[in-house]
Amino acid sequence: MKTINVTRIILITLLVGIISTFSTYAASPAAVAAKNIREKIVNVVYADNDQENFPTEGTVVVLFTVTDEGKIDIKKIESTNTEAENFVTKKISSISAKDNVYPYHQFYRVKFQFDQN
Q: In Å, what is the CA distance from 27 to each residue of 21, 39, 70?
């Protein structure tokens, strides 16, 4: 009876170790993809090519997904300034994420801060 309990404990420990190893390797590409899409969006929004319409102040938080076609689908947007919200919406809508591989239909959250200098 004691041998059976020890065997069960060993098998359960091995099973937990194997499952945790698989989940660790599975999470890494998703984390890298999330970082890449956030960086891409931040770079597009803060680019200097549209300085005349660049908001002077405000905070915008965007919750979005990437569709199967590689388009950014804004699910929710919160802002303290309508001008900043419109600017971010315009910039994000122009982004195509088709060139990279992202987990589609995963939610991403990005916060933008515009400060008057």
A: 10, 19, 21
Give the residue among 54, 109, 112, 50 at the shortest CA–CA distance from 83: 54
What percent of the chain has pLDDT above 70? 74
Distance CA 62, CA 67 (A): 16
CATH architecture of 32-114: 2-Layer Sandwich (3.30)
- For 22, 49, 60, the CA distances from 41, given in Å and listed in that order, are 30, 14, 13
Q: What is the pTM of this model?
A: 0.67
What ranges do the domains of the chain cover? 32-114
Strand partners, 58: 114
Q: How many distinct helices (H) and strands (E) make up the chain?
A: 2, 3
Strand order across the beta sheet in which 58-66 lies: 72-79, 58-66, 108-114
